[in-house]
Write a structure and sequence with these properties.
It is built from 11 helices and no strands. By secondary structure, it is an all-alpha fold. The chain has one domain (about 1-245). Keywords: Cell membrane, Membrane, Transmembrane, Transmembrane helix.
Length: about 250
């Protein structure tokens, strides 16, 4: 099992990091399909998210595609809510219900990237209401903490629809958003003493995502991930999400 997951996690990290994401939704989907314990799933997915996006944040910042003022504006409300969401006590059935809904929504968001983003002509960045985007970020942060997903997969389409910034800057903002929310989610789990870490299981996966994430992050400084990546990963996420809801 671990060998197959390492290969899949490496590929996911490479593809997601190239677009500024951590890959938490796909990590959770894969672990759910392999029937991993739900507490171990959450902790491992958040750790993998952090391992991938740390490199992404660094490379986006160095390449000038991470506007820090906007990054903190989006994260100011989301970080405490991600902590609160992770701290909330959830039964296994409730967690898988929420995760199934979250993964299904994530698949829809990825389909948006596939079918609409690439077809629209580039439009000038509009000056949006920072407070509104901050509140949206907060809601995404709460969901992120509850499910173990970094939240970038939800934030990116919202920012693109609102023309909040350029495509590459939005990728950088999403990467930063995932990092701070994943850290907050882990702190929430630690506060209620619910972090489950199995070195034999998580160690090889972390090595795989670090390697894949570094390659993907370097790709992102030059060009964004191809649109077909969204479609390919959306199929996996949608399948896992619907399966959880049916069960």
């Amino acid at each position: 099992m671990i060998t197959e997951l390492c290969i899949l996690f490496f590929v996911v990290a490479l593809l997601y990091a190239a677009a500024g994401f951590g890959g938490g939704s796909s990590y959770l989907a894969l672990m759910a399909l392999w029937q991993v314990d739900f507490q171990l799933m959450k902790s491992t997915a958040l750790l993998c998210n952090i391992a991938v996006v740390v490199g992404g944040v660094y490379h986006f910042y160095r390449s000038g595609h991470l506007p820090l003022r906007k990054a903190w504006q989006l994260s100011l409300v989301s970080v405490p809510l991600a902590f609160a969401g992770s701290y909330l006590p959830l039964k296994q059935a409730t967690f898988f219900l929420l995760l199934g809904i979250a993964l299904t929504i994530a698949a829809v968001c990825m389909c948006y990237r596939l079918f609409f983003e690439g077809k629209e002509a580039p439009e000038p960045v509009q000056r949006g209401n920072g407070k509104v985007y901050g509140l949206i970020g907060g809601a995404i942060g709460l969901l992120s903490g509850m499910t173990g997903i970094g939240g970038g997969i939800y934030l990116s389409p919202v920012l693109r629809l609102g023309r909040y910034d350029t495509a590459k800057n939005i990728a950088g903002l999403s990467s930063f958003f995932i990092l701070v929310n994943s850290v907050a989610g882990l702190l929430g789990q630690a506060a209620k003493q619910a972090i489950v870490f199995d070195m034999a299981f998580a160690g090889p996966l972390l090595i795989a995502v670090i390697a894949g994430g570094q390659i993907g992050a370097r790709m992102s400084a030059q060009v964004l991930s191809p649109r077909w990546v969204a479609g390919a990963t959306a199929v996996l996420i949608l399948y896992a999400g619907v399966r959880m809801l049916l069960q």
